[in-house]
Amino acid sequence: MACIRAAFGTKTHPDAQQTPRSLSFINQNSHGITAAGHIHCHKEHDMKTITASVLALAALLSAGAAAAATADAGAGAKIIAPLEISRTADLYFGTIAPSTTVGDKVIVAADGSRQCGPALTCLTTDQTAAAFAVTGEEDAFYTISLPSEIKIVNHKGTSMRVSDFSGSKTRGQLLKGADSFTVGGTLDVGVRQEAGRYRGSFTVAVEYQ
To answer: Could you read off the pLDDT tens digit of each residue along the chain, which spans 209 residues?
Structure first.
């Protein structure tokens, strides 16, 4: 870039007015000049150099961004049928006469059979194991969880303990999307156990395996 500069000089004469002695124009290239009284154009040159560098850097960054590689990935999920359980029969120990001297137990097995303790009299044969139906995803496996013990009570609040729950299985498979199992337990009958109809409930849980 060329610069056009003017240099002014004056000479003082004792008897004359000061008049311009010379006016010079200098054509200078981009390197500037160093002579006294002349003006340099380094500042203009430096600004143009900085601007060019910034533009070059921006172009480099833009080229890098344009060269980024991309890829798409799929997303999905599979939802299966919910696992559901329903009661089809209750655990029932039948009608029992207690002892006047000692307590004893009545056991109803998961297959529905019953053992009546020798100190007790089991009067009926209508005992039943609890029964449950399970539905869900076809051919899926599931596990069964039983409680440890519960209490059943009569209308006066007197209770008897039911414990040692046992199932016909601990896990099952939903062949064609359905399965079933039964649950038995043990009833503790006290000495001179108070008469009445005793009721209670217990929870069985199933979970996909």
So the answer is: 444 343 434 344 444 444 444 444 444 444 444 444 444 445 555 666 666 666 766 665 665 556 899 999 999 999 999 999 999 999 999 999 999 999 999 999 999 999 999 999 999 999 999 999 999 999 999 999 999 999 999 999 999 999 999 999 999 999 999 999 999 999 999 999 999 999 999 999 999 99
Cβ distance 160 to 193 under 8 Å?
yes
Alpha helices in the chain (DSSP H): 42-66
* CA distance to 4, 36, 38, 131, 192, per residue, from 10 (Å): 20, 15, 15, 124, 141
Question: With 0-12 CB in 10 A as exposed, 13-18 as middle and 19+ as buried, what is 140?
Answer: middle
Residue 1, token pair as written in the block: 């870039």
Give the whole-angstrom CA distance, residue 138 versus residue 84: 13
Q: Is residue 194 within 8 Å of 137, Cβ to Cβ?
A: no
What is the three-class DSSP state of 151? strand
126 near 148, Cβ under 8 Å? no
